Amino acid sequence: MQRRSTSLGLVIAVIAAATFGLSGAFVKPLLEAGWSPVAAVTVRALTGGVVLAPVAIVALRGRWSALWRGRWRVLGMGVLGVAATQVVYFAAIQRIPVSTGILIEYLAPLLLVAFVWVTTRRAPKPVVLIGSVIAIGGLIMVVSPDGSTQLDPLGLTLAVLAMIGCAGFYVIAGRPSDGLPPVALAAAGLLLGGLMLAVVGATGLLPFTATFGDVELFGQASPWWVPLVVVGVFATAIAYATSITATEMLGSRLASFVGLLEVVAATFYAWLLLGEALTVPQLLGGVLILAGIAFVRAEKPEPQPAAPAPRPRGASSGDPDAAPARNDAPLDTRRG
User: Fold this and answer.
1) Span 4-58, pLDDT tens digits
2) Inside any domain, residue 312
3) 234: closest CA among 51, 19, 44?
4) What mean pLDDT value characterizes the chain?
5) pLDDT, tens digit, for every residue of 272-302?
6) Global confidence as pTM
7) Residue 220: helix, strand or coil by DSSP?
8) Is residue 333 part of a domain?
9) Whole-angstrom Cα distance, residue 38 to residue 42?
10) How far apart are CA 311 and CA 315, in angstroms?
11) 197 is in which domain, residue-wise?
């Protein structure tokens, strides 16, 4: 059953990565039309939250106490997983190349491995370390960062904060649900995060501009709301709900490694929809990421200590002659 659950979790995680990867191809036309990144992400988050809200209400089935018990997860998801991570990432790529920002942000799986290592004082198993090196090597090949650009220290700092936020997303998503459905966590977190981003934009800390004319989408003029609907429904609502679901099933570490496939998906969509070049090293990088995930997935769980066999009623734990209880005997008829 555990193996089936993990396999299903991997399938859901791949769907999450594939839908997350759509955002770049559909947000880019908005940015080129004059939308600021914060404005686009704000509308994206609010749209995703509104789309998921009816599904979340049905999933809760009136158990509003579960939402209250999970209020800290919701707060963390909205503040850290949605708002803060998006803000610092877009602030970072205003100062450093996009490829460098993506590379740093998606070092989050290594951060999680190091965090577990430090907190438990137990070194990761060799398969995890090997998988980490292979997957990050593949990530570097996919994003192909340009080393010729002088990097801004503040931009690098912001990118590191985005990495911490990305890792925090997986930690929050992987926490025990305590009866809170993943779709409810996603909906509440997106609505809260979207509102916080709107506040950030209103304060003027980051540019908040939007245009409402036609945008060029794949070589054709389209209404401004078309890419927002695609991003809001698929790359936000479905992506966040499936990602949180998969993380609860797989755990933060494995889910974060599967999340690297988002970069591969985004590169593929850019080639398929935007006509951007797809190179052989990028394809090989995608294969390496898959190999790294396979290594991390191959880690075997620690064996659980066997539970002591039940003793017959009336037998002392120190009695060496006490006969072991039979598992097939009714509990109340073992002693006359």
Assistant:
1) 678 898 999 999 999 988 887 788 788 888 888 889 889 999 999 999 999 999 9
2) no
3) 19
4) 82
5) 777 777 788 888 888 888 898 888 888 766 5
6) 0.80
7) strand
8) no
9) 6
10) 7
11) 2-300
In-domain check, residue 334: no
Residue 72 has pLDDT above 90, yes or no: yes
Given a cut of 80, is residue 216 above it in pLDDT?
A: yes
Q: Does any domain span residue 327?
A: no
- How many distinct structural domains can be found in the chain? 1
- CA dihedral (90, 95, 97, 99) positive or negative: negative
Residue 315 DSSP class? -
Backbone angles phi, psi at 216, to 5 degrees: -85, 110
Q: Give the H or E element holding residue 52.
A: helix 37-60
CA distance 241 to 76: 15
Q: d(Cα 98, Cα 213) in Å, to the nearest integer? A: 26
The Cα–Cα gap between 77 and 97 comes to 27
* Token pair of 278 as six digits: 């797809």
Instruction: Retrieve residue 318's tokens.
Output: 């120190």
CA 198-93-134 angle, 5° bins: 120
β-bridge partners, 215: 222
Q: What's the CA gap between 198 and 252, in Å, rounded?
A: 29
Length of the chain counted residue by residue: 336
Residue 281 in tokens: 């090293």
Rounded mean pLDDT, 93-106: 78
- Token pair for residue 92? 């970072």
Structural tokens at position 173: 């998503």
Which two structure tokens, joined as six digits, stand for 164? Answer: 């911490």
C-alpha distance across the termini of the chain, in Å: 39
Which residues sit opposite 220 in a β-bridge? 217
Element (H, E) at 221: strand 220-222
